[in-house]
Amino acid sequence: LVYVEDQGCIHTVAVTLMGKEQRMLPSLGVSLKTSGVGAMALGAIIAIITLGADGARAEPTVINFTQVGCQFIESEGGIDRGFTTRSAKDCERINRDTATKRLGEARPLVLRPGKYIFRVFNKNVPYALGFWVRGSGFGRVTLPSVSGGGLVLGKTQDYAITLKPGEYVYSCPLNPTPDYRLVVKG
After folding, report:
1. Residue 86 CB: number of other CB atoms within 10 A?
2. CB of 112 closer than 8 Å to CB of 185
3. Which burial class, exposed, middle or buried, applies to 82 when counting CB atoms under 10 A from its CB (0-12, 13-18, 19+)?
4. Which of 37, 58, 76, 93 is 20 to 30 Å from the Cα of 162, by its Cα?
C-alpha cells in the first residue's frame, strides 16, 4: 500500500511492506519510522514518480469557492449572508452598503506559488456568473490572470492558473462581489 499525504507543502509518503509502515519526507530523504532501507528506497522512488524529482506537486491544487448572491461564502469566513439578488444591480447596491465592513472581516487567502484550479460553484444565483483572478495594483500588468463567465445556476466551472509570488484580488464581475485579497508567497 502506498499513499501520499499533502500537509500544507510538506509531502509525506507512507509505504507499507510486509505489514510495517514506513513514513518519510521524500524531499528531505528523512525517515520518520525505521523498518528497513528497502522500504525507504521504494518510498523515495514512489515519491519522485508521484511528486516529481524536485518534490513539487505534479497536479494542481484545487481551491473550491461557492458563489451565492454578491459573495463567495468561503472568502467571508464560511458565512452565507443571505443576500437576495435578481440582477447585478442588486449586488452593486448591497456592496455599496456592506462591502467595506465585509472585507474588513475577511482574511486574505494565502497560497504558495504553483499550479491551482479555482473550482467555482453557482449555488443559487439565477443569472450567469463568472470568476476573475488578477494581480493587484501594478501586479495587474505583471502577474498572471484567469477569468471566464457562463457559470449558470447549479453549475461548477474550473479556472486553471499558475500563480507567481505577489498580491492578487479575485472576484466575480457579473455577480459583483468585493475584490477579495489573495497573497502568494513562499
Report:
1. 11
2. yes
3. exposed
4. 76
Tell me the torsion sign for CA atoms 152, 154, 119, 177.
positive
Q: What is the pTM of this model?
A: 0.70
Query: What DSSP designation does 106 have?
Result: P
pLDDT digits (tens, 9 = 90+) for 149-177: 999 999 999 999 999 999 999 999 999 99
3-state secondary structure of 74: helix
Q: From start to end of the chain, where are the E strands?
A: 2-7, 10-17, 20-25, 30-31, 61-68, 71-72, 109-111, 114-122, 129-135, 146-151, 156-163, 166-171, 180-184
Distance CA 86, CA 13 (A): 49
Pairing of strands 114-122, 156-163: antiparallel
